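Re: export button greyed out
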Amino acid sequence: MDSCVIPLRHGGLSLVQTTDFFYPLVEDPYMMGRIACANVLSDLYAMGITECDNMLMLLSVSQKMNEKERERAMPLLMQGFRDAAEEGGTSVTGGQTVVNPWIIVGGVASVVCQPNEFIMPDGAIPGDVLVLTKPLGTQVAVNAHQWLDQPEKWNKIKLVVSKEEVKEAYQEAMFSMATLNRTAAGLMHKFQAHAGTDVTGFGLLGHANNLAAQQRNEVSFVIHNLPIIAKMASISKACGNMFNLFQGTSAETSGGLLVCLPREQAAKFCSEMKSQGSGFGGQGAVGGAWIIGIVEKGDRRARIIDKPRIIEVPPRGSQAANQDNSTTSPAPSPNLS
Amino acid sequence: MDSCVIPLRHGGLSLVQTTDFFYPLVEDPYMMGRIACANVLSDLYAMGITECDNMLMLLSVSQKMNEKERERAMPLLMQGFRDAAEEGGTSVTGGQTVVNPWIIVGGVASVVCQPNEFIMPDGAIPGDVLVLTKPLGTQVAVNAHQWLDQPEKWNKIKLVVSKEEVKEAYQEAMFSMATLNRTAAGLMHKFQAHAGTDVTGFGLLGHANNLAAQQRNEVSFVIHNLPIIAKMASISKACGNMFNLFQGTSAETSGGLLVCLPREQAAKFCSEMKSQGSGFGGQGAVGGAWIIGIVEKGDRRARIIDKPRIIEVPPRGSQAANQDNSTTSPAPSPNLS
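Workaround output, generated via the alternate export path:
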């Protein structure tokens, strides 16, 4: 499970807790702090938990930074983390900082819950629909952005993408990673989700497999559609599929929730994700959610069909994103008939 | 405070939580795991909390270790951590592991408490007695042990200590660091402790100062006695006091609890620490506790008197340790008259 659930000695309550830490992957320290916090909280949100009682911050300062660099970067990193925590309705009350060769940022999120506050991720049934709440391709976008300064790498992809498009995709990935999955967590209750997880290091298929393996019923997950940040599919193809994006195993950071919803609820979930917005930092950025597959009777595994439909998700703020029914409405359902 | 205390939304309960992580300082990975766990739990014990509902483990594997080294060391490290958690009546249900230039080990300890389960560290009154539950000098012992292989360093101290004594002191420090402060936490309730903290990176005086600064009453802490692992005082002198051991600022790892006790309870606390044993791993190792100072009216600071009495604490298992009234009975009280 994404979080551990510990029954407490007191009145039917449970402690739900998760930790995560990693290395910076975007250049802006403030945004990196937000991403780290969103990534930690996401494990609670994946269980439909919308509240968090406490956060701790885990940090290491790089020994390779000089005093001035530390004084500029670390307060911004911490502020980003704190701001995202505040957006999650919680605060950071402690933590630990060390010196290390590399910068590390992460945290611990804890909440004490009544049983009705969380959704155990094991209730999928045949006929459910799989919904994903953020587009894939964050790893591709972050790497492509680094390649802008590496001619050898850039030459591999310059025929399929412009520098401007890479910068836009990087921005989109950064804002997407910094967006809390809290709205989705709330909607999991409203639309009676049967199970959920979040998509991070193992990629969509990795986490879908984990989730399928935990189901009480004999089900399998079949994925038909892959919503991907615009142009990242082309980049993946141009570099010989090195990210395994179409196989569903490209790592994501602070990815969306993958939710199993009753068939009749999925479209409403997506539509409400759009209208509520899951936007970063209260900036009113649009939210999104896509129907990506179905739950069938099966042996508790997940698979992606041959030639899944690629849904190109344009950057928010772009013309395409501002047209109705482009990124934010649910994609046409896969074989639901 | 050593842990954060978060009032919960449910029935007067509080979430008490702490995290700590650092780099290995002993060679034995199993013992290092135990030390890391004891060090995390110690922040709960310092508040008189004897239970822990959940632990998470934070690990990084060094990228400089080859596959074989990883396979040998990391399972032992994790086992040590788990065994110490089990001794603390809790278990490790989650965590995060990354690859990093250096090995990191640490964790998160969380407990949901009723108000009577923890002792807020702010109730010291003039006349209280200060008790310390582990000897000082772990940093000196660990460094001296490394110097066995560094002739230049070893030459500085070889006139005051034998190799055998350094090895014994290192063993003593390792077992002391791996010992949970849980017994002491329980006795804090039995003997109505007014406040407590644990002694770690800031050294005895650093943590005593922190504790003094938090007191509700206008008090100061005066430290008269320094219980120190045998020979570590001599080593400190021989290397020009480079550790600041006598100033009370030599860093400790997983040090003892510093507890403010009512004057009439302190000797009983020490005597019970001895008879219960605070020993590592149920091996029946002796426990110890020393009266080291008093609480006076003052300006919320701590100080060590000029020429404090050094109490040489012989290694457990040594002849001296097995004689009655050597390490384990409380030292003669400082000016309590």
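Residues 281-286, 324-337 of chain B have pLDDT under 50 and may be disordered. The button fix ships in the next patch.
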